[in-house]
Amino acid sequence: MSRIPLSQFAEINGQTKTAILLGLTQGALNKALRVGRDVYVISHENGSYTAEELRPFPVQSAKRSAA
């Protein structure tokens, strides 16, 4: 099992193939890359791929902080 940043994985495999491997649209992948989301792709021993996003905890929403 290995873990690689989404941007690096997409650079190696191309955006179209990366989107297919992760089960999402190329548009969604492009947006995640464009806005700089902290996403990592995990390569599993069975040849499948999953992705996880690192986010601060707790997540502060704009509504909550405005109150």
In short:
This protein is α+β, with helices and mostly antiparallel strands and 67 residues long. Helix content is 45%, strand content 21%.
What does this structure look like?
The chain is of the alpha+beta class. Helix content is about 45%, strand content about 20%. β2 and β3 form a beta hairpin. α1 (about 5-15) crosses α2 (about 15-20). The longest helix has 9 residues, at about 25-35.
Relevant terms:
single chain, 67 residues, alpha+beta, CRO Repressor, three-stranded antiparallel beta sheet, 4 helices, globular
Regions with pLDDT < 50 over 5+ consecutive residues? none
Number of strands: 3
Overall number of structural domains? 1
Write the CATH architecture name. Answer: 2-Layer Sandwich
CATH fold-type name: CRO Repressor
The value of Rg in angstroms is 14 Å
What is the terminal-to-terminal distance?
A: 43 Å
Q: Give me the number of helical elements.
A: 4
Strand order of the largest sheet: 1-2-3
Structural class: alpha+beta
Average of per-residue pLDDT values: 90
Largest sheet: 3 strands, antiparallel
